[in-house]
Amino acid sequence: MERELIRPFGPTIAKVKMPEGLINILNTYVEKVIQNKNQSIDLDHGQKLAGNVKQEFKLEEKFIDESGWGDFLKENALDWVNSSSHVKDELKYFKIIDTWIVRQFQNEYNPLHWHSGHISGVGYLKVPKDFGETYQKNKTMNQNGKLQLVHGSKMFLSPSTYTIKPEVGDFYFFPNYLMHSVYPYVNTNEERRSISFNAYISEKVYNVYG
Fold first, then answer.
1. N or C: which end of the chain has fewer CB within 10 A?
2. How far apart are CA 23 and CA 88, in angstroms?
């Protein structure tokens, strides 16, 4: 799989291309859950998450194992950590805490927050064709529907934010403590569908102060 290490500020971020077959499997699963009201209620995860969005629900453990989604996360997460850290022995421990779907529509948003566990990530399964224009036409930056990662404060030679435009198939891995938010978008009824996760790795590797 295509991988890229990004370092806009302190910690690295890994950008990975999700296989098209896996994207199709995930979207098919999501559509089935949406159609099943009882399952949607059972898997609802919105009350435990920061987002002000239409629907957020967890993936079932059986599906995570059988679909290959768990393998995708483990392989790429460990590859990212091993290539970014200075551990003497190759890191092999990886345990998913939870992984969930976020269905976002116009005027909805995800406020600035961070995650639990050790490592996290987000990828995109559906993206609107257009996130809409800014209300003031002369704005040079349109943040509608974008993900913004935040680390520290702006300093000389060191930006504090990294902005990502969602593209179907792109998946980003980052440390759990990295603050991030998703901006609302306008002028479309199309869904912005993302998938996220939290996981543990070896405490000896994660806890650099231990």
1. C
2. 35
Spacing of C-alpha 16 from chain mean position? 11
pTM of the model: 0.94
Distance CA 62, CA 99 (A): 12
What lies within 8 Å, CB to CB, of 7 at 6+ separation is 13
Q: What is the pLDDT along the chain (210 residues), one digit of tens a residue?
A: 678 999 999 899 999 999 999 999 999 999 999 999 999 999 999 988 999 998 999 999 999 999 999 999 999 999 999 988 777 667 889 999 999 999 999 999 999 999 999 999 999 999 999 999 888 887 788 999 999 999 998 889 889 999 999 999 999 999 999 999 999 999 898 999 999 999 999 998 898 887
